[in-house]
Design goal:
This protein is an alpha+beta fold. Helices cover about 25% and strands about 30% of the residues. It has a single domain, classed as RutC-like (60s Ribosomal Protein L30, Chain: A). The chain has helices at about 50-65, 90-105, and strands spanning about 5, 20-25, 25-35, 75-80, 110-115, 125-135.
Length: about 140
């Protein structure tokens, strides 16, 4: 594995992600922001934040597989959520948990969550981009 996830002493431990990813691999993969499009282009989970988060993570896994990697290779995620408020956190975490169950991996690398006014189309509630490091 090219990525080691760490929660250093002196920083708070957060359930949703690790504070640090240490990369030892030599090949970087940058995955464009993924929205809740299914394989044929239609929006999955319209009006359902958890379902859209799950689809975004599955789309990232698909992109990484095409590069010869998996979610275990992700060094950093950036998550953009439309009209973010803290009360949406349980839905975000539910979507992540559902994706983790399908992927067989807990996708908990360092992450940044950014609230935004809108995304590319009104149906999209979340977009997730990833940076991965492969051996």
């Amino acid at each position: 594995m090219a990525i080691t996830l760490v929660n250093p002493e002196g920083l708070p431990t957060v359930d949703a992600y690790h504070q640090v990813a240490i990369a030892s691999g030599s090949r970087m993969v940058f995955v464009a922001g993924q929205v809740a499009w299914g394989a044929h282009g239609g929006t999955v989970g319209e009006s359902d934040l958890a379902a859209q988060v799950e689809q975004c993570y599955l789309n990232i896994a698909t992109a990484l597989a095409a590069a010869g990697g998996s979610f275990r290779d992700v060094a950093k995620l950036t998550v953009y959520v439309v009209d973010w408020t803290p009360d949406k956190m349980p839905l975000l975490m539910d979507g992540i948990s559902r994706a983790a169950a399908q992927l067989g991996a807990a996708p908990v690398p360092p992450a940044t969550l950014i609230g935004v006014a809108a995304l590319d189309v009104p149906e999209h509630l979340v977009e997730v981009e990833a940076t991965a490091v492969l051996d």
